[in-house]
Write a structure and sequence with these properties.
heterodimer, A: 109 residues, mainly beta, six-stranded mixed beta sheet, three-stranded antiparallel beta sheet, globular, B: 120 residues, seven-stranded mixed beta sheet, four-stranded antiparallel beta sheet
Chain lengths: 109, 120
Amino acid sequence: SYVLTQPPSVSVAPGKTASITCGGNDIGTKSVHWYQQKPGQAPLLVIYYDSDRPSGIPERFSGSNSENTATLTISRVEAGDEADYYCQLWDSGSDLSWVFGGGTKLTVL
Amino acid sequence: QVTLRESGPALVKPTQTLTLTCTFSGFSLTTSGMCVSWIRQPPGKALEWLARIDWDDDEYYSTSLRTRLTISKDTSKNQVVLTMTSMDPVDTATYYCARDRGTSMGLDYWGQGTLVTVSS
């Protein structure tokens, strides 16, 4: 089955840029989605189709996807961005299933 | 607006079958391209996708849990039901349902989740 690899944690100072990676075999050929989850809340879709933002998501959130790594970038990080972030894609191989990464805890210093 | 709400027992005993209902509004599972997925999250752990049902009745299941899961829909009631057999304490988790827009759009609306504890 397809495996998505995320760093367990990323730390960033307020106002700086945070980059959260999601590694997978030829992930650049697939559509990757990103979710933000704050404590006690349901996940929130922040990026879909590699780099598109749903309505209401700030422009500070952006995404890219190439070769074996997809990246979520958060510019001008705010304290309110502190959360867990998950990448996701549809495994269209033999399993036909959604796959989530292990999640990355973003800490705003 | 789109809303989803999970309902079901908060506590189940080991070996029992869990039945969860997702009641939604703001969209229809008879509309082409609409799907509903179930996802769970053990306390302090990552998200795990469980199952999906599509507008055209296609069903998809987690490979590791396929033998224990059944997903179904009642379009007249705007509900999706997930059953999981042979519950074990390791199945203790918050269970979410979400509107699933497919490969290119992801899970765009989620319910608030329901915590299910498996204990004797």
